[in-house]
What we know:
Blueprint: E1 12-14, E2 27-30, E3 35-38, E4 44-46, E5 52-59, E6 62-69, E7 77-78, E8 85-90, E9 96-103, E10 106-113, E11 120-122, E12 129-136, E13 142-155, E14 158-173, E15 179-184, E16 186-190, E17 196-202, E18 209-215, E19 221-225, E20 232-237, E21 243-250, E22 259-266, E23 273-274, E24 282-287, E25 293-298, E26 308-313
Antiparallel strand pairs: 1-26, 2-3, 4-5, 5-6, 6-7, 8-9, 9-10, 10-11, 12-13, 13-14, 14-15, 16-17, 17-18, 18-19, 20-21, 21-22, 22-23, 24-25, 25-26
Amino acid sequence: METVPEEGGIHLTRFTSDEENTIATAVYHTNNNNSLVWSGNRYLAVSPDGSRLAFVRWVDNKDNIYIKNTAGGTSAVQRTFRTAVSDISFSPDSKYIAFSEMVNGFSHIYMMNASEGSAVQEITSANNYDDLNPAFSPDGNLIFFSRIEKHINIINNAQTATYNGNFTIWSYNLKTGLLTQYDEGFDPCPMADGKSILVSRTSKQSGMGEIWMLNTESGAVTQILTSPRMGFSNPAISPDGKKIVCVGSTPATPTRPTNLDIYTVNTDGTSLTQLTFHLASDMCPAWSADGKTIYFISGRASNAQRYNVWQMGYTKLM
């Protein structure tokens, strides 16, 4: 275990090992390490029944989903056998997982059984969009995801991508096959009321990431979390619906560069609280089913400079 003085009252344990080659969010330092750019991918998910944790491993030059019992003591079981998987989500009954994968230059959404079989259902397939961040609705009938228009350009045998516009939130109805577009945003997190979802957005003023709430019935949007000096992403609602855990870019100090840490905030945007303080970036937070543990991915305590899944006790912080 490795902590810093500010984390002295927090119980932190490492859930995976360096040998498991856990994949994490891509993070880029800019402006002499005083600001960060990072992706909104979710490489970690906990099953709603609390029994399993899914994460992405890099094995044999491929990114695939592996599932491990939250009780520990067992090896991770490989569930996808593909090439470039990311963005994991469990269905409400814990029987299925949705994920995104880059195929032929475009990211699509897929679904499969979480524990048996190898059949994969393709949810989206349009070859002029990147579809990312799938998340099941509370009733399991919809898969929300984020979409951005994309064009592939090939110049002198070199391939580049051009993105047109902002990310928007969509849903796919598993019963009818109907696709529905909502409002601007990415990284959706449905709330228990079945009407609202948390989304990340990029501020048009500061360029920083923000957390918003979108009502999918009325279309109303409410800003939850914003800062001119910090960016936020990866919102996840607590099981009791009272707290949001997310990633935040902690501003630099004279002795530390800016990095990513785990924060919580009330659903009305009050009581922003920093939970982690390590120099390594902490990302992709996910709640345990009972709300007493927060899982996240971090590069801390790794001599091999690899990422691992960590778990943090939350009850002491409430």
